[in-house]
Amino acid sequence: MKIGYARVSTHEENLNFQIAALEAAGCEEIFTDKVSGIKAERPGLTEALNFMREGDKFIIWRLDRLARSLKELITLVERLKEHSILFESLSEKIDTASSSGGLIFHIFGAMAEFERNLIRERTQAGLKAARARGRLGGRPHTPEKKIKTAIDLYHNNPDLPIAEICKLSGVSRATLYRYLKTEKN
């Protein structure tokens, strides 16, 4: 049986592309997660690993959807191998059903980790350069005057919808609710 696994890092991302690729590869069961790969707890992956039996094939869309480090990737694939479960990554065209697929798996795993490290290093360098230029990053703070206007509108106009209060004051709904919550505490 072919078992698929798809993961996206945030709830804003969409699993549809990965699921379509796994279905096209013949996966009969597909497990999913919407969680950062950094998090150790991935319920969909755990469920998939527990579901598979000897002779099954575990298929993913891309290596970085399964693991965030080469060590974790190798550990997972070795665990599959111990249970006589084959492994396939569609994007990298790695299939451990062959000995060359096993070799390619290790090479691409190292390359994927290298690419993630390069991205992380570039991001850190960019943030450091921005800080050196006086840029702190993050979201801009809402001016106190706007917040006071929004809170006054909220308290003095009980029939005025929140959306209208936010539009009139220029304060987001989340910001207004956050300040109202701190006001109650």
Automatic annotation (TrEMBL):
Residues 1-134 form the Resolvase/invertase-type recombinase catalytic domain. GO terms for biological process: DNA integration. GO terms for molecular function: DNA binding; DNA strand exchange activity. It comes from the Bacteria. InterPro entries: Homeodomain-like_sf (IPR009057), Recombinase_CS (IPR006118), Resolv_N (IPR006119), Resolvase-like_N_sf (IPR036162), Resolvase_HTH_dom (IPR006120), SSR_resolvase (IPR050639). Keywords: DNA integration, DNA invertase, DNA recombination, DNA-binding. The active site is at residue 9. PANTHER family: DNA-INVERTASE FROM LAMBDOID PROPHAGE (PTHR30461), SERINE RECOMBINASE PINE-RELATED (PTHR30461:SF2). Belongs to the site-specific recombinase resolvase family. This is Resolvase domain protein. It comes from Zymomonas mobilis subsp. pomaceae (strain ATCC 29192 / DSM 22645 / JCM 10191 / CCUG 17912 / NBRC 13757 / NCIMB 11200 / NRRL B-4491 / Barker I).
